[in-house]
Design brief:
With 141 residues, the chain is an alpha+beta fold. The protein has one domain (14-140). 52% of the residues lie in helices and 15% in strands. It has helices spanning 2-9, 16-67, 75-83, 137-140; strands at residues 89-95, 100-106, 120-123, 128-130. The protein has a 4-stranded antiparallel sheet. A hairpin with a 4-residue loop joins strand 1 (89-95) and strand 2 (100-106). It is elongated, with a radius of gyration of 27 Å.
Length: 141
């Protein structure tokens, strides 16, 4: 009868060792997954900025088609005002009669400053550049 009372007093559940092993496994998985997640978040924000830059370039091309000059439609002031609210990138838009340059500089507030591509630029010839070290334009665009 004594053996049955010892079995009955033991309750099922996790031991402290089992719990610590489970916590350690979760911590290791999180340490591996979080940097990868951050990289994908930065890439998605970069893709959104590139889409915005391409849209701006198309608007400049429409202006040049209508007025024969990139700076004839008042787009620079409108775009600088509209895009200055971004917390992830600071836009700089400049245009002359025959050229335009769109620059997107990553900002620390939105966490985009750790993006490996750095500053993105697009000009009137469709030339895209990046300022990041050890990356090519094809890696970032």
């Amino acid at each position: 009868m004594r053996a049955s009372s010892q079995i009955a007093s033991r309750q099922p559940g996790f031991s402290l060792i089992e719990l610590m092993i489970a916590v350690a496994i979760v911590a290791i998985l999180a340490a591996i997954a979080y940097p990868s997640y951050q990289r994908y978040v930065q890439q998605s924000h970069r893709n959104a900025v590139q889409t915005e830059m391409n849209t701006l370039a198309q608007n400049f091309e429409r202006c040049r088609t209508r007025a024969n000059a990139y700076n004839a439609c008042g787009l620079v002031a409108a775009f600088n005002e509209e895009l200055s609210e971004s917390e992830r990138y600071q836009f700089t838009v400049a245009a002359t009669a025959g050229t335009f340059d769109i620059t997107a500089t990553p900002q620390a507030l939105g966490g985009q400053n750790n993006d490996r591509c750095g500053t993105l630029t697009l000009n009137h010839q469709g030339v895209r550049t990046v300022s990041g070290a050890d990356v090519t334009v094809e890696d970032c665009w």
